[in-house]
Automatic annotation (TrEMBL):
UniProt GO cellular component terms: extracellular space
Name of the protein described by the UniProt record: Pregnancy zone protein
Domain of life: Eukaryota
Pfam family, one: TED_complement
InterPro entries: A2M/Complement_sys, Alpha-macroglobulin_TED, Terpenoid_cyclase/PrenylTrfase
Coiled-coil region: none
Ranges for domain Alpha-macroglobulin-like TED: 17-174
Gene transcribed to yield this protein: PZP_1
SUPFAM superfamilies the record matches: Terpenoid cyclases/Protein prenyltransferases
Annotated PANTHER family: ALPHA-2-MACROGLOBULIN, MACROGLOBULIN / COMPLEMENT
Length: 174
């Protein structure tokens, strides 16, 4: 079903069935700003500028979900807002799951993986998505990412590649 929503003063028309796990205005605003910056619309465009202002205000809140922080970090990376990008990545690193030489993020309150013989756990698509957004935020920076960021990014990429199914895809097309 098509919906109309006003996000930070922006009229947005979207298909509700494509919304994924997003159910708040800040996360949806981050998605939209990412899409607009990838077109690419300039950061000075009024819609982008207003959306970024909304995200900057929201980034200072402590209750942001890890998925929302990952999206905002990538949006700020695309916009060249280096301080906000670094602050969110620092916050996200504190919430990272570091295991078996890889790094990823998972939803709060998630039950631990079951370690069964002959069974390879694959994370739900939302966790693959948010981890991929963090990876993009690490790699999208001017000037180029530092060696330290590239090393950390390789640990994230290792986890993401481990989530691939035997056909090379993932658990979802999202």
């Amino acid at each position: 079903t098509e919906k109309t929503v006003v996000l930070c003063g922006i009229n947005i028309y979207f298909c509700g069935s494509l919304q994924g796990g997003v159910n708040d205005e800040i996360t949806l605003t981050a998605y939209i700003i990412i899409a607009l910056l990838e077109i690419p619309l300039p950061v000075t465009h009024s819609v982008v500028r207003n959306g970024l202002f909304c995200l900057e205000t929201a980034a200072d809140e402590k209750e942001n979900h890890v998925y929302t922080k990952a999206l905002m970090a990538y949006a700020f990376a695309l916009a060249g807002k280096e301080e906000k990008r670094k602050a969110l990545l620092g916050s996200l690193e504190k919430e990272a799951v570091k295991k078996d030489g890889s790094v990823h993020w998972q939803r709060p309150g998630k039950e631990p993986e079951v370690d069964l013989p002959y069974y390879r756990y694959r994370a739900p698509s939302a966790e693959v998505e948010m981890t991929a957004y963090v990876l993009l935020a690490h790699l999208t920076t001017q000037p180029a990412p530092s060696q330290e960021e590239l090393s950390f990014a390789s640990l994230i990429a290792k986890w993401i590649s481990g989530q691939q199914n035997p056909n090379g895809g993932f658990s979802s097309t999202q």
